[in-house]
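Team,

Forwarding the record for the chain on the shared tracking sheet. I've put the sequence and predicted structure together so nobody has to dig through attachments.
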Amino acid sequence: MTDRLALPAAAALAFLTLALWLYLLLFQAAGVQVANRSGAVLGGLTVCQSGGDCLHREHLWPHQTWRVPLDREAGEPVRLTVQEAGGGRPAAAHTPRIAGTRPSFVVGQGGRIEVQ
């Protein structure tokens, strides 16, 4: 590659990379979001839809967010279940009223699950 083309090619590549990151961050497909604000590592997370589609995750570290790419329709419930160290399985469900919205589950202190 000649020196005359190197700078424009690098600038175009940098612009495309930035545009892709912005698209992924701001215009993600609607799904489910799970945030760990408990201060502890969560294990055995499961997000399920009423149709039986489920996704699992082994661990979610403190202050980490899991974006779950589940396609949903309005009125279809979504359920989050977390495995506790003592064997309990706290759960929360949410039924979005508008298609394309992203329900957010936040696991707080003591393993309490809130829907936002």
